[in-house]
Structures are given as C-alpha cells and as structure tokens.
Amino acid sequence: MKTVISIKLDKEVKDAAQEIAKSTGLTLSALVNSYLRHIAVTRRIELFAPEPMTPQLEKLIEEVEIELKSGLASKGFDSVDELMDDLKS
C-alpha cells in the first residue's frame, strides 16, 4: 500500500536532489523512499549540516593563503622520506 506525504523544503535543495536522482536514473520520490527505508531498517538518522564560515575562520584562511603565496609556509610533501630529505638539507 502506498501513501502520500507533503513536505516543504527550499527550492534549491529540491532542484539539486532531483538533479542527482535523475543522474542516477531515479526519481526524487524513489530517492526519498529509499532513504526512509534505510532509516526504518537501520533505525538511524544521519544528518549533514555544514558549519557556516565564521569571520575568524575566514581571517585565518586568508592569513594562510598569504603565507602560502609569499613562501612563508612550508611546501607540501608527498612522502615522509621527502620531508626528511628536505629537513636534512
């Protein structure tokens, strides 16, 4: 037996989810139904809520970017051996 639910959500969220569902060959309804089945079976709800950037974090990132551009920060290394060779030189 099928039932209908109505939910309110941001248009951008609906459009993005619909696009993702379509790219995998699913309808938005099938995607939501699958997620709700997953919750029912696992009895777990997993939510994602990204933290907004704070002015302090933005300032720190800006400072790091300046250090990287000016060469004040250390370069990146692909291995521990590469790091050790750089430290010895």
Care to describe what's here?
The model has no long low-confidence stretch (mean pLDDT 91). The protein has helices at 11-23, 28-42, 55-70, 80-88. 60% of the residues lie in helices and 0% in strands. It is elongated and about 70 Å long. By secondary structure, it is mainly alpha-helical. The protein has four helices and no strands. The protein folds into two domains: 1-49; 55-88, no CATH class.
Write the layout of secondary structure elements.
Elements: H1 11-23, H2 28-42, H3 55-70, H4 80-88
The structural domain count equals 2
Topology order in helix (H) and strand (E) letters: HHHH
Biggest sheet layout: none
The tally of beta strands, per DSSP, is 0
Mean pLDDT across residues: 91
**Cα end-to-end separation:** 72 Å
Which keywords apply here?
89 residues, mainly alpha, 2 domains, 4 helices, 0% strand
Summarize the structure.
By secondary structure, the chain is mostly helical. The chain has helices spanning 11-23, 28-42, 55-70, 80-88. The N and C termini lie far apart (72 Å).
